[in-house]
Amino acid sequence: MSSDFETYEQDFGTLTADITNKIGRIPKLSGEEKTQLVLNVDKQLEEVRELMEQMDLEVREIPAQSRAMYSTRLRSYKQEMDKLEKDFKRSRIAYSDEVRTELLGEDAASSESQRAHLLDNTEMLERSSRRLAAGYQIAVETEQVGQEILSNLHSDREKIQRSRDRLRETDANLGKSSRILTAMLRRIIQNRVLVFILGAILLLVIVLAVFFKMRGR
Q1: Distance (Å, rounded) from C-alpha 176 to C-alpha 129?
Q2: How far apart are CA 190 and CA 213, in angstroms?
Q3: What residue ranges do the domains of the chain occupy?
Q4: How far apart are CA 90 and CA 96, in angstroms?
Q5: How far apart are CA 34 and CA 163, in angstroms?
Q6: Alpha carbon distance 111, 119 (integer Å)
Q7: How far apart are CA 192 and CA 205, in angstroms?
Q8: For 53-109, how does the pLDDT look when each residue is reduced to its tens digit (9 = 90+)?
Q9: pLDDT tens digit string along 7-35?
Q10: What is the C-alpha separation between 85 and 100, in angstroms, rounded?
Q11: What is the DSSP string of the chain?
Q12: Could you give the CA distance from residue 154 to residue 167 in angstroms, rounded to a whole number?
């Protein structure tokens, strides 16, 4: 899991370094070249925002004992991202003012500045919507995990109950077997006693027969 986060970190470093370089070049360019660069930076910032959301999701999945370290690193990346957006905003406003001044004059520049402000607010709302969507997805996934855990617990409970039933059945069978063995042992003892008594009687009869026979002579 942490290896995925570190991969995102590398992508973040590459993107932000490129964005920083391009923001620094915006004031030095003009015309179509500057327009393309501004659009390119805007697109890259959107990629960084998506990357940050992925990093945030990864941090949530990291075990608690290691999460604090990654959370701190993520906060520093968010601060860096905020700084980049502010720098780009200043460059973009300056660029927009320059274009408006060239095309429409100072009066139109004021109106366009308000439009840029509205666009910024719209972007903030879009980012908030994306964060809410990501939070909702996490909540749904958490609910699914909870349902799976409850299902596993229910299944484990049924297994334990079946094991208890088998133990009770085995105990009952052992008790029954014990009673049968006790009865068999009692019968064996009774049979041995009976054989002993019959043997003693038979021996007594033989002795008496011999005695009377010898006496008759």
Answers
A1: 70
A2: 34
A3: 2-163
A4: 10
A5: 75
A6: 13
A7: 20
A8: 999 999 998 888 888 999 999 999 999 999 999 999 888 775 555 554 455 554 544
A9: 999 999 999 999 999 999 888 888 889 88
A10: 22
A11: -HHHHHHHHHHHHHHHHHHHHHHHHGGG--HHHHHHHHHHHHHHHHHHHHHHHHHHHHHHHS-HHHHHHHHHHHHHHHHHHHHHHHHHHHHHHHHHHHHHHHHT-HHHHHHHHHHHHHHHHHHHHHHHHHHHHHHHHHHHHHHHHHHHHHHHHHHHHHHHHHHHHHHHHHHHHHHHHHHHHHHHHHHHHHHHHHHHHHHHHHHHHHHHHHHHHHHH-
A12: 20
2-163: which CATH number, 1.20.58.400, 1.10.10.10, 3.30.530.20, 3.40.1350.10?
A: 1.20.58.400
Distance of alpha carbon 17 from alpha carbon 8, whole angstroms: 14
Count of positions (residues) in the chain: 217
Render pLDDT for 162-208 as a digit per residue (tens, 0 to 9). Answer: 878 887 887 777 778 778 888 888 888 888 888 888 888 988 888 88
